[in-house]
Amino acid sequence: MTFSNTKKKVIAAALDYGGTKILAGLIDSTGKIISKKKIQTPSKESKKRLVLEGKNLLEEISEKGGINLSDTAGLGISLPGMVDNNGEKLIYAPNWKMRNFYVKREFEKILGIRTVIANDINAAAIGEMILGHGKKIDSFFWLTISTGIGGALVIDKKLITGDNGLAGEIGHIKIYDRRLKCSCGKYGCLEAISSGPAILKRTKERIKSASFKRITALKKNDLTTEKIVAFANRGDEGAQKILDECSSAVGKALSYIVNLTDIETIIIGGGVMDNNPLMFRLIKRYIKEYVYEEKLRRIKLLKPKFRYDSCLIGAASLIFNQENCST
């Protein structure tokens, strides 16, 4: 196949497929968003529908931004699941219950522009590496706490993917021997303890007890993860206990990463961490409690430079990283 964009450009098209939303954007090589739009992920996902929705979004933002897709350096796509090391297909997306989706081929066929795909967390880490904190930091661990929990490892300005593209899967480190079944089918995973849905589930179970009701203003029929986080940061004792337990598990998992890699910088994003300084403090405290030789380390927790748009900027950065056209 011959692509229409043969010369290097400094604008990339980007798609960020999330568990609940699809975000499209045109991004320049400084990380500036020229045009973007978000829609909800279709309730009944199919491969054909997901490609069509992405194509329509890209054409809409292309018109809005006044830039033809054929004049971009290419299309970067971040995906909510495992991507093969060759960057050809989505191996498995748990939220979509979908396997072997040849995303790269489908978009190159329908749009005629070079397409690069990656797992969403890896894409966000690449974006941070070339356009964010990575400009001043050579090595870091990226952690997302949201609907799920994912991680990515950057060492000496290189994303470490492993033999099968699965490096960094901190969400499936086992914290407990049993209890709390994870979406992966195993028990005791970090994701089953500290993700957004896990926080909500734990609070719903705890709020049934009279002793918990005495220490919280949270109401059983009006619970969301966002509300639990907000109450905790305002001093609600019950909500704080929930976040403390979740933060302990995150801190323990991150201590394993620090012990194995000797990394000192951890960048933490995701919806659960928005407006959540309490959990940042707790996680740092527990890392220091669990890590080996804490006094020799200078552990730093940072927020992502691009916050909500991290995966979208990361998708565009897949193109910039290959083109070497970032500034």
Total number of beta strands: 13
| Lateral strand order in the biggest sheet | 3-2-1-4-8
**What is the domain total for the residues?**
2
- Compute the CA-based radius of gyration: 20 Å
Please outline the major beta sheet. Answer: 5 strands, mixed
Structure description:
With 327 residues, the protein is an alpha/beta fold. The protein has helices spanning 47-65, 103-111, 120-131, 190-194, 196-206, 210-213, 225-233, 237-261, 277-290, 310-323; strands at residues 11-17, 21-28, 33-40, 75-79, 82-83, 90-93, 98-101, 115-119, 140-145, 149-155, 158-160, 265-269, 300-302. A five-stranded mixed beta sheet has the order 3-2-1-4-8, with helices on both faces. Strands 11-10-9-12-13 form a five-stranded mixed beta sheet. The longest helix is centred in the C-terminal third of the chain and has 25 residues, at 237-261. The model is unreliable at 2-8 (pLDDT under 50).
